[in-house]
Specification:
This protein is an alpha/beta fold. Helix content is about 30%, strand content about 25%. The chain has a ten-stranded mixed beta sheet.
Length: about 260
């Protein structure tokens, strides 16, 4: 089990948002807005030799805000080249550019999950462009009627695809890793989603990073126990570097 750090960028600033609150109409509910640029966090991760972290561009592609996000992301990837993954508006036309900027992987959701289902033709196209070893599938979910559905478009749109161990195992042949946000608890500090973790643990697939609700070392131990050490974790707003009360240094020491 590894600690995988994050850099979420919204309107050109590093932020921590409440999961599922981001929308074009109402903006987003912010837990934290950093005065530091994205490169500050990337350099911090470099100095602590943390690999596999992810940068997420939270604004809609084609907007001025997205362009600001991208400039921040470029500086982060330059500060820790070859060590950070990036997602947000990734498609076959720009994916190679992200790798050229220094990303280790591109993270894809909306291009692959369209019209409520998996578009395997699009998935094959992404694999062809960047190669399986550089592709991360974002299988972030929201719970509806006790079922976890993969969501797209900044977690606002439900697909018809239920997250199951069988689906995860099947998709493992098409990518290198998975990133899964538990959107219902993301950014809330209310604790992790153990039911979702059990689904992830039951799959026989690639490395998976779980995000959502981690607020204590007990939560981290639970992730270790349920995932038998195979599920990585990330922490956002509860970290002291993002305004929370969990020590980044202690998390790094714990995960060594």
């Amino acid at each position: 089990m590894e600690f995988r750090p994050c850099i979420d960028i919204h309107n050109g600033a590093v932020k921590q948002l409440v999961g599922g609150s981001l929308s074009d109409a109402d903006g987003a509910t912010e837990n934290f807005v950093s005065e530091q640029p994205a490169s500050f966090y990337a350099d911090l991760y470099r100095r602590n030799n943390l690999i596999g972290g992810h940068i997420i561009l939270l604004d809609k592609t084609g907007t001025e805000a997205y362009d600001k996000d991208l400039e921040q992301a470029k500086s982060a990837m330059a500060a820790w080249p070859g060590a950070l993954q990036i997602g947000g508006g990734v498609n076959p036309e720009n994916a190679e550019e992200f790798l050229d900027m220094g990303a280790s992987h591109v993270i894809v959701t909306s291009f692959v999950f369209q019209d409520g289902r998996i578009r395997y033709d699009n998935l094959d196209e992404m694999k062809y462009v960047v190669g399986r070893k550089h592709l991360v599938l974002d299988l972030s979910v929201r719970k509806k009627d006790d079922t976890y559905y993969i969501v797209t478009d900044r977690w606002q749109k439900f697909t018809d695809e239920e997250l199951t161990p069988e689906l995860i195992t099947s998709l493992s042949y098409h990518c290198d890793e998975f990133l899964v946000h538990a959107v219902n608890v993301e950014g809330t500090g209310m604790g992790i989603d153990e039911d979702l973790l059990r689904i992830l643990a039951a799959s026989k697939g690639n490395p998976t990073t779980y995000a959502g609700g981690v607020s204590s070392f007990d939560d981290i131990e639970t992730i270790r126990d349920i995932g038998a050490g195979r599920i990585h974790f990330t922490i956002g707003s509860k970290l002291d570097i993002f305004g929370g009360n969990l020590s980044f240094a202690d998390i790094v020491d714990y995960s060594k």
